[in-house]
Amino acid sequence: MSASIINVNNLCKTFFVKRPAQSFGGRLRSLIRPTYQEINAVNNISFDVADNQIVAFIGPNGAGKSTCIKMLTGILMPTSGSISVLGLSPMRDRTCFTKLIGTVFGQKAQLWYHLPPTDTFQVLARIYELDHAVVAKRLSLLIDAFEIGSFLHIPVRKLSLGQRMRCEIVAALLHQPRIIFLDEPTIGLDVIAKQQVRETLMMLHKQEGVSIFLTSHDTGDIEALAARAIIINQGSIIFDGTTTELKNRYVTTKVVQLVLEQTTDTFTFAGGTVIEKGRHNIAIELDASPQAIQRLLSYALENFTVADITISQTPLEEVIAAVYNNTFLLPERTL
Amino acid sequence: MTHVSLAKYTAIIRINLRERATYSLDVLSKAPQVMFRLWIMFSFYGVVLQTQPAAAATTTLNQLLWTLTILQAFSGRGHPRIAEIINDEVKSGLIAYSINRPYSYLLFQYCNFLGKSLPVIAARLIAGSIAALFFVGLPSTSPTALLAGTLLLIGGFTLDFFIGLSIGILSFWIEDSVALDMLYSKILLVLGGFLVPLSLFPPTLRSVLEYSPFSQLAYSAGYLITHFQWPLFYRYCATQALWIAISWLCAYWLFKRGMRHVAINGG
After folding, report:
1. Which residue, A295, A214, A208, is CA-closest to A6?
2. Chain A nearest CA to B18, separation (Å)
């Protein structure tokens, strides 16, 4: 196990939001003595992230994931608890810290809107005090990896969302950070753009060993990139483990679809539930254990001529949705 | 400050200048309004000086109009407001990027402001000078007065930045500081000599206002260029330096405190 590069201990963040009064008199009173509502966006969470890991930090809207990522990057001050990223305090050691991390906030833009992306890259190179030769080499690598060469000299305002997002990620990676924080990096992108972003991030992770801490609503990002998932809901961590563990823990059934040459009239299998039955095709939901599937397949192959078999399990998206909705019985948190 | 760290700030100025250059037509189209304002002032103060001997004893129309030309270059539509820039960053959440880079945030914003302002000030100064030349001829000044005035203008720009920055940083708490900035700009208009030159104010009020930060933004420079005296230059320099130090301390303190209150809107 590599050393931890992120240590979060008992982290809390509370916001005080002004509560608007309903009556006219109440509104007047609130000018002098406003009333505030306390919102616990992040509620006593702790976790560690090892070096060279990709961690997906997921949760429904308002769960506290963006607040958490902003505390990890030193933008928001925690109400209590401690954060150490690469051995530094994000708030206290800001200047050193910002040189070691890269950030992409999918809903915000860091590129100068009216200028071509290349101008932003040059300014960022100066800001991060990078050597000309190093920048040229790095940019060449990133331009090829993200395929942004063809629109490098077009003003950002004229780029598509996918093109802009790829440039945003290049801007975050220019100074070769040790860890990148991605807050919904594929939001609004089409399938191809998403795939390209994921593949390139994975390539950089493998080649350069850059750690990635990512929040996303897209389970495709999580499945394609993250080996570990932390699920947060209402400010608290409700799952922390590998994505395989997440699936194994919550996916208790599989669906086997069979296409038979004979009719399905005589198909009787006690080890599962028939959820769909046609003249030649049948879908059976059964326990996800290999033994249950073996039993079904043995029965089918011994008694019928099987033309086609499809075995499917609950998609990760549905698993996560069910976890959010508490449809699954939540187990003890895995640390 | 090392050569490398200076390079990042000059790069920030350059990119802002380049961004302004993409909308050069917008900058240039707003500059001629200075000519219109100066024409109104020329007509108005021409009558004032003719009918008020007391006012005419303190200044000439040439001096008055050239002072106002300097002042007009530093105010009005199209001129960026630093408080507004920060306010927008807080509202849009862009502050998540701007505070999180390896530079001094205050210096970054200074360079940002400088880069955005320089083309506007230059365009307005040129337009204003053409109008003033047409109305009252060359200014009664000297190279020393111009140099001293330029120094005070740089100081005034810095002072305006720190006051505006302090107002802008208040949006870390109140989320919208535009109303406060408007109030500040209206106070400037009246007490900073932008509308009525301080030389036309009653002597007691004038001497009080000359020590205020508002007169040190552009009026002191404009007045010195047309009424140069070394003692006046020293006095203005000392007053301006004092207000720059106070406003810098205020902005720095607010920024340090405000960082604990930053709340980024949206996801």
Report:
1. A214
2. 8
Position A251 scores a pLDDT of: 72
Measure in Å the smallest separation between the Cα of B204 and chain A Cα atoms: 37
Q: What span, in angstroms and rounded, lies between the C-alpha atoms of A239 and A335?
A: 9
Interface test with B, best of A16, A57, A61, A75 (most B CBs within 10 A): A75
Contacts of A66 in chain B (CB under 8 A): 264, 267
Domain A252-313 in CATH 3.30.70? The answer is yes
Strand pairing class (A253-260; A281-287): antiparallel
Strands A236-242 and A306-313: what pairing?
unpaired
Give the sheet arrangement for strand A211-215, strand by strand.
A101-105, A179-183, A211-215, A54-58, A228-233, A236-242
For residues B221 and B200, what is the distance between their CA atoms, to the nearest angstrom?
16
More confident position, A171 or B177: A171
Say if the Cβ atoms of A155 and B22 lie within 8 Å.
Answer: yes
Is A91 in contact with B259 (Cβ distance < 8 A)? yes
**B4-34 residues labelled b (16+ CB within 10 A) or e (exposed):** eeeebbebbbbbbebbbeeeeeebeebbeeb
Q: Do B264 and A128 touch (CB under 8 A)?
A: no
Query: Does residue B188 surpass a pLDDT of 50?
Result: yes
What does the pLDDT look like over A106-136, one tens digit per residue? Answer: 878 889 999 999 999 999 999 999 999 999 9
Q: Which CATH number fits domain A4-10+42-248: 3.40.30.10, 3.30.450.40, 1.25.40.10, 3.40.50.300?
A: 3.40.50.300
Question: What residues of A are in contact with residue B266 (Cβ under 8 Å)?
Answer: 107
Any idea how long chain A is?
335
Provide the whole-model pTM. 0.84
Examine the pLDDT at B2 and tell me if it is beyond 60.
no
Domain chopping of chain A, boundaries: 4-10+42-248, 252-313
Helix (H) or strand (E) holding B172: helix B171-174
Average pLDDT, chain A: 87
pLDDT in tens, B208-245: 999 999 999 999 999 999 999 999 999 999 999 999 99
Which uninterrupted H or E stretch holds A274? Answer: strand A272-277
